[in-house]
Amino acid sequence: MASKMKKVLVLPGDNIGPEIIAEAVKVLNKVNQQFDLGIVLDYAHLGGAALDAVGEPCPQETLDKARASDAILLGAVGGPQWDNVERHLRPEKGLLTIRSKLELFGNLRPAIMYPQLAHASSLKPEFVSGLDILIVRELVGGIYFGEPRGIRILENGEREGYNTYKYSESEILRIGRMAFEAAMVRGKRLCSVDKSNVLEATMLWREVMNELAADYPEVELSHMYVDNAAMQLVMRPKQFDVIVTGNMFGDILSDTAAMLTGSIGMLPSASLDKKGGGMYEPCHGSAPDIAGQGVANPLATILSVAMMLRYSLDAADAADAIEKAVSDVLDQGLRTGDIYTDGMTRVGTVAMGDAVVAAL
Ligand code: IPM
Ligand code: MG
Q1: Domain spans of the chain, in order of start
Q2: d(CA 244, CA 246)
Q3: pTM for the predicted model, two decimal places
Q4: What digits encode the pLDDT tens for the residues 306-339?
Q5: Pocket test for ligand 1, best of 92, 254, 304 (most atoms within 8 A of CB)
Q6: 1-105+277-360 maps to which CATH number?
Q7: Which atom of ligand 1 is nearest to the CA of 99?
C-alpha cells in the first residue's frame, strides 16, 4: 500500500555533522524502502555551513523548508573555525534560532544503557546496567533566551556580562505537561529539577509542577535541587525515571546522563513542538577534534532517526527495526572508538552505518 508522502529536511551542519548524517540517511533510506514510508528528503544549511554559504547561521530558506517539512534531521553545528565571528552570527546561534522559531520547546533526551556497553561506562556496571532515564528539557526559554542580555560597560568603565533567567507560567505548564505525559507511558515517576532554594524563576517552576500534579494522580512527582540531582545522577542513577528541568540545567544534566551510558555518541534526542512536529539530533556536538577522520560514532544520529519515525512520522515499526539493528551491531562486537573496549572490533563511521543497514 502506497503511503502518503512525508517530507524530511536534513541539516548536516558542521564538522562531524555531515559524516554522521550520511550514515543516518543511509539507514533512513533503507527503512523508507523496506516499510514503504513515502519519505522524501530535502537538504538545507544550518550553523557554520550556513554562515559560509549565505552569511547567516539560520537562513530564511532553511526556516521556510523546515516549516514545510514533517520532520527535521540535524547533524551538529559549531566549531573553532567560527570562534571569531560576531556573537549573533555564531553557528550555535543558528541552532538556537531554529529551535526558537519553530517553538520546539520540548527536548526529550533518553539515556538508555545498552547491556553490551556496560563496560564502556566510567561507572561500575552494577550502577548503570539496566539504566533507562528520560530527560525532558525545556528548550526555548529560560536563561538561554531571557532578555535583557548582553555585555555592557558600567559607569566605572569595567565590562559586565548579564543574562535573564525567567519562565512564565504557560512555558512551565507546557513542558510540565509533556513530562507528565511521558511519565504516564513509562515508570510513572517524575523528578522536577530546580534551584528553588535560590532562584525565584524556579520557585514558580516548582509551584506550577505541583499544581499540574493534580491532573496526573498516577504519577509520583518529586523535586530535587540541581546540585543534588547532578550528584544523584552519578551516585544512584537508576533511581530516576523521567526528569523534567529548564533549559540550562537540562543541557548540563543530559551530558552527565549521556556519559553514564558509556558514550555521548550513543544518545539521540527529539525536540518537539506542541503538534508533535520536531527536530531530531544527536545530543553530542560537532566534535571538531575528530572531524574528517571517519571515526565518529553515527549511532546517536541513527537512533535519532528512530525517534523521528516514532514521534513525527507515525512509523513505530521502522523505529523498532532501527533500534533492534543498532543492538544487533553491538552484539556483533562492532565499536567506534568512543565505545571501544578490549576484545571488540574497532570500526569507523561508514562501516558502522553499513553494519546497521545490513542488520535491517
Ligand atoms: C545541546 C548543545 C547546545 C545547547 C549548544 C550547541 C548551543 O549543547 O544541544 O545540548 O546548549 O543547547
Ligand atoms: Mg549540550
Answers
A1: 1-105+277-360, 132-260
A2: 7
A3: 0.94
A4: 999 999 999 999 999 999 999 999 999 999 999 9
A5: 92
A6: 3.40.718.10
A7: 12
